[in-house]
Design goal:
Helix content: 25-40%
Strand order of the largest sheet: 1-2-3-5-4
Bound molecules: adenosine-5'-triphosphate, magnesium ion
Number of strands: 5
CATH class: Alpha Beta
Order of helices and strands: EHHEEHEE
Number of helices: 3
Shape: globular
CATH superfamily: Histidine kinase-like ATPase, C-terminal domain
CATH topology: Heat Shock Protein 90
Strand content: 25-35%
Length: 146
Amino acid sequence: MAAWRMSRSFLGSPLSVTEARRFVTTFLIGWPVVEAAELIVSELATNAIRHSATNRFGGRFHVMIHAQHDRVWLGVTDEGGSRSPRMLSPDEQQESGRGLLLVGALADSYGVRGDGNGRTVWAMLLVEPVATTPATPRAGSGASSA
Ligand SMILES: Nc1ncnc2c1ncn2[C@@H]1O[C@H](COP(=O)(O)OP(=O)(O)OP(=O)(O)O)[C@@H](O)[C@H]1O
Ligand SMILES: [Mg+2]
């Protein structure tokens, strides 16, 4: 299967989280990782809106999908700011701090790149190869001789 990339920019509004989820499910429909990808994008888009400069007036975030035969890479790029994404320790987690924990649990790997001008939080999901059974000829098929 040929690799492909898709990206889209969204306004930094809570309503955009639903749109970002739909963007991911539309392009990953039929992929075994579609549900995990949807949850991850939902958490990362929510974080971009809540914790980064994307929440300024006119702020935006970008979602990228890079699909290959054995993996799907997802990235959400925000507009940076003074805070950085970090997984909260169990002591710090009370009403919040579950988002990146969930991303870490769902993804095969994940990370952050960039700086105060814009950060990309990314997650990579491995795709299990689909088992295929070799076709067996049906009994009675083939040429017959009289
Ligand atoms: N895109 C981001 N930019 C800056 N800081 C971030 C970003 N994403 C997360 N963070 C920081 O990392 C912390 C942990 O993020 P996480 O998603 O785990 O928890 P939360 O967003 O605070 O709460 P929850 O996701 O449970 O509602 C956040 O509290 C915030 O300080
Ligand atoms: Mg969060």
